[in-house]
Write a structure and sequence with these properties.
elongated; disordered N terminus; Diaminopimelate Epimerase, Chain A, domain 1; 47% helix; 8 helices; 2 domains; 303 residues; alpha/beta
């Protein structure tokens, strides 16, 4: 009879282990699906069916007639050092060579006129800042007088950098502009311009109906998935171990006292320490960003 009991107990343990093994496999499958879901294929609708062809015609610096690689960064407000300006200038040259669209940065102490977008449009026409047959360009303008910023797009750039994309770029650079980190803001602007142009060459155009999502670092995803799988496995193993322990931890010593053997004669609360926690009140700096406004081929705001 004892042998039968042992066989029954062993059978139950085997079934329990099979059940938890099944749960572990399911958790690993969920982690794998989570990893795959973090890299969705972003489908986009091209603004025009011949967008890929237009990029193939414009890619390459030798196919951009009459365009100089100098002067894409015009720091009239003196916000950059010479080395910073040179680095940004080189980035602009690379973007022009790769996509045939000029990425321009212009800063000034005060722009002429009442609207920074009109000021940018006038500079675009007067200085011939467009590239290729379609005069394609993306311009970021900064005015320090009233802390205005504006982004305008032209030619093929206008099809890629619609209002949604321009406001997306503006939102990303706004904090750096407000904090006076102008080089970081301009570097982010060029990074995002590069990303959107590269996606557009693959036929991906972003808008309100097809929103852009940042790519996650594959190494971070793999490590995060591995860590999550380890934690889930550890919890399962701990639950197995807990089930094997028949001892129960008591919350108080009352279970170990004989009934009637203890009588409390006096009770008092004695405070040995007095602790006061102080924290500095945070001062919120007022960076009035205003609201972004888009009209035509441009988007403007304040920092």
């Amino acid at each position: 009879m004892r042998d039968g009991y042992r066989r029954s107990l062993s059978h139950r343990n085997d079934r329990s282990h099979m059940f938890w093994a099944f749960i572990l496999r399911m958790c690993l499958c969920v982690c794998l699906c989570l990893c795959i879901s973090l890299f969705p294929e972003y489908e986009a609708l091209a603004a025009e069916g011949d967008l890929k062809n237009s990029f193939s015609d414009l890619s390459g610096a030798e196919k951009v007639p009459g365009i100089s690689a100098e002067g894409w960064v015009q720091d009239g407000a003196g916000l950059l050092t010479e080395s910073e300006e040179a680095k940004l200038e080189e980035r602009c040259k690379e973007i022009l060579s790769e996509y045939g669209i000029s990425a321009v940065i212009i800063t000034t102490d005060r722009f002429e006129g009442s609207d920074i977008l009109d000021w940018e449009r006038r500079l675009f026409a007067e200085q011939g800042l467009g590239a290729g047959e379609n005069n394609s360009s993306l311009i970021l303008g900064i005015s320090m007088a009233e802390r205005d910023w504006g982004i305008t797009a032209y030619g093929d750039g206008e099809r890629i950098f619609g209002a949604y994309v321009r406001e997306k770029i503006g939102g990303e650079i706004l904090d750096d502009l407000s904090d006076g980190d102008y080089y970081d803001a301009f570097d982010t602007y060029l990074d995002m311009a590069d990303t959107f142009m590269a996606d557009a060459r693959e036929g991906k155009i972003y808008s309100e109906s097809n929103r852009y999502r940042k790519r996650m670092n594959p190494a971070v995803v793999i490590l995060g998935t591995a860590a999550l799988s380890f934690i889930i496995s550890l919890l399962i193993i701990l639950s197995w171990k807990r089930g094997m322990n028949t001892r129960v931890l008591q919350d108080s010593a009352g279970a170990y006292l004989m009934q009637g053997s203890f009588r409390l004669t006096k009770r008092a609360d004695i405070f040995l320490y007095h602790t006061v926690n102080r924290s500095r009140r945070q001062k919120h700096e007022n960076h009035s960003s205003g609201s972004m406004r888009s009209s035509g081929n441009g988007t403007r705001g304040k920092f």
